[in-house]
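Dear all,

This email documents one entry for the complex benchmark we are building for the journal club exercise. For each entry we list the sequence lines for every component of the assembly. Then comes the predicted three-dimensional structure of the complex as a token string, followed by one or two observations. Please use this as the template for your own entries, and keep the labels exactly as they appear.
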Amino acid sequence: MAQLSVGEDLFATISVVGLTVLFSVALAHSYHNYAERRNTYEDLSTALDIAGQLKNDILVEHGKFTSPGFIGFAAPAELGNYCKMLTAQGIGVFIEVRDLDGNLVWSYGSEPNAFSGYFSPPCSVNLPIAIARGQGSAQLGELIVRVWRS
Amino acid sequence: MFCSNKKEKAQHSVCAAALINSSRGRGRAADRGSNPRAGKSPCSAVRGLKPRLTIGERGMGYVADMLVFALMISFASALLVKASPADMRTIDDRYTANFADSTLLALQNATANELGGLMYELGFSDFTLNFPILNGSAGRDLGYKTLMQLLVEDALCNLHIELDGADVNLVKLSQDMDVKVKVLLKRALDRLTGGLFEYRLIARTKPIDVSPVAKVWFETEVESSSENQQRAFSKTIAMAMPISWQGLLSRCQEVHHIDFSSFNSEPNTTVEITLELWPR
């Protein structure tokens, strides 16, 4: 009877510790998922805002013909100030303009390093644009904006 | 356990210590049979109260407590799983809407020559005006125009005319253009959407009643899938035709000898271009 009693106590202890650990892990996992969803939502929302502003304002070719979504063949000077402003707010950004064959037309900024990507995985959005080729010609392309928390 | 005074508190602490000692030595004492109070709480012996729970019984109590605790944690986890700052579909929807907007803007600015160009011969049905005397002048190269300009021009050149509810097949010299513009737009949209979205591009003008029996309109459609989606995002832009209705009708009057003088139309003709997008 005495051995059984000790066994019951041991079983109770193991059950209590096991269940505590198990459910604590479950709670931590749920919180991790929740935080990940919230971060993804916020980062995607930020990336969309930045891409929209770049496409409709910052990168627009200022020439005889100006239209939102009509991007110059080279990165404009204003882009530097805009990226500095984002960096001051703790947002890292890497911008690429590619044609429809995937060839790089131009890019701006530095890609996120592995360390910053660990804490805030970069998220990217791509939007269709038209790239000015000179003499009234424009080709289709895509604007890729990668955003992360620095 | 609540104690009203210091004496009671001290008594209880003695009882607790005795309980632990008793439980540890319970087995041996019971074997020896030397302790007549073996298995009983010392407190009950001291104070004559009900016997307390043994550690084995309390262990089961802990398990029950843990189960309640686990239930509460499960409830909290379930709340966290369901809780979200916003529905993730919202961001998908926002991206799709942005993509539709950007696609229309890109089509307004991109020229046809960057997508292989657009050339066609003036003609109708299978007959083209390819006489040697014309020396290729029946051909039109519209590569310098943007894709949307081509769509609007297509609308202008290929208007449908309905008389008494029946379509009238007029001689359309730019019939070939309609097909080629559709092919060009489909190629552009296929490459822009990159397999992420299905699309439907519709260009149409409002039907204009030019007489009690005659109606003029234009409608064309380029789509990747014929299925209808309940959750599609559409963006519509209106583009002005390069010619007013009055100018257009006066030209029709010259060619077809129909009197449109009594017709009061809107001065500006617009083509509504709608792009519907939905995720694959």
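Observations: Chain A has a mean pLDDT of 84. Helices of chain A lie at 2-58, 78-88, 114-119.
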